[in-house]
Amino acid sequence: MIILMKRNSTKEEIGKVTAWIETAGYKPHVSEGVERTIIGAVGTDEGRSMLKSVAFLPGVERIVPILKPYKLAGREFHEQDTVVRVGDVEIGGPGFAVIAGPCSIESEEQMMECGYIAKKAGARLLRGGAFKPRTSPYSFQGMGEEGLKILKNVGEKMGMPVVTEVMDTKDIDLIEDYSDMFQIGARNVQNFALLKRIGMSRKPVLLKRGLMTTIEELLMSAEYILSGGNTGVILCERGIRTFETATRNTLDISAVPVIKELTHLPVIIDPSHAAGHAKYIIPLTRAAVAAGAHGAIIEIHPQPEKALSDGPQSLRPEVFYRLMDEVRILDEAMQNGIGKL
In 66-171, where do the E strands start and end? Predict the structure, then answer.
């Protein structure tokens, strides 16, 4: 349920409304807009009759039921776009933010070279996997804590915030010490224990859509994190499984405008995992800029043929530089009004 406060409502009136919501067994979420304050009441239906009486409190204009199953992620509660801050980088506002780095951290030398490439090209965040979910148990599984140390060290030297994947609740505290943003991959998008635990953290999280996850299911997964108090959620479209075999997955570019319509949370794309092949990444990234995405996460490697994981979809330095040049041109055109036509 949403409680719309009057334009001239006082802080004292808002405080009384939030106290009433808590008394009814609900959790209040206050959103202060430009013109008025909106208070969301999230919880079960047990105290609904008592909650409705909030309409008679001073300062309340009216109450509105939330029709969507996702309460905090939806625009019904939060009309303005959310801008998520990762270190000194903002994602969700104007500008197309690129996150770049290797699929897996393989060595300090490899990570340092990737960091240099990413920084030189103009990427805003550095990525690298320390714990790798692999289809085969015999594939490279990542360097673990040693890899995290390398990632943090390179990020500090390059002056770039870092992001890495978390797969298990037991690793959250460790990863939190070394990274600026969590990544929850496609395989864990409905790992509800992990989502709840990440909700208790206050570090931003990049939440990837699963291979067979609907947009509503993705938003419900975000709701788990938001309901825990972590408001720094960035959504990522990374390709879904279809009958098509020409690419590794099918990038659902239509998900970008749909997600932006349904939620205030930022949305980026992952063309690397969608395509599965480096030659498609530039055109897919172009499409993401044109569709209004807030950014992209792209895999790069100084020598893709020697990569321990996802080499075929990793961009060589010279190709990544070209991609970033094109992104700057397209992004500038979008911000100058082409995207409003």
Answer: 84-86, 89-91, 97-101, 125-127, 162-165
* pLDDT recorded at residue 340: 53
Rounded distance, CA 269 to CA 251, Å?
Answer: 8
Q: What CATH number matches the domain at 2-64, 3.40.190.10, 3.30.70.1140, 3.40.50.300, 3.30.420.40?
A: 3.30.70.1140
Q: How is residue 173 written in tokens?
A: 């505290």
For 84-340, the fitting CATH number among 3.50.30.20, 1.50.10.10, 3.20.20.70, 3.40.50.300 is 3.20.20.70
Task: Pinpoint the alpha helices (H) of 200-339.
Answer: 215-227, 255-262, 271-275, 281-291, 317-335
Burial degree of 212 (CB within 10 A; 0-12, 13-18, 19+): exposed
Tokens standing for residue 86: 């990762």
Q: What is the C-alpha to C-alpha distance for residues 207 and 192, in angstroms, rounded to an integer?
A: 12
Domains of the chain, residue spans: 2-64, 84-340
Residues 6+ apart with CB under 8 A from 4: 36, 38, 60, 61, 62, 63, 64
| Model pTM score | 0.88
pLDDT at 250: 97
Which residues of the chain carry a pLDDT beneath 70? 45, 47, 338-341
**Pair 166, 144: CB distance under 8 Å:** no
Dihedral over alpha carbons 26, 31, 37, 41 (to 10 degrees): -10
Tokens of 11: 């802080």
Which H or E run contains 60?
A: strand 60-64
Q: Provide the 10 A C-beta neighbour count for residue 166.
A: 25
306/319 Cα distance (integer angstroms): 17
Q: Tell me the C-alpha to C-alpha distance, in Å, between residue 149 and each of 59, 99, 157.
A: 52, 19, 12
Instruction: Report which of 291, 274, 267 is spatially closest to residue 215, judged by C-alpha positions.
Output: 267
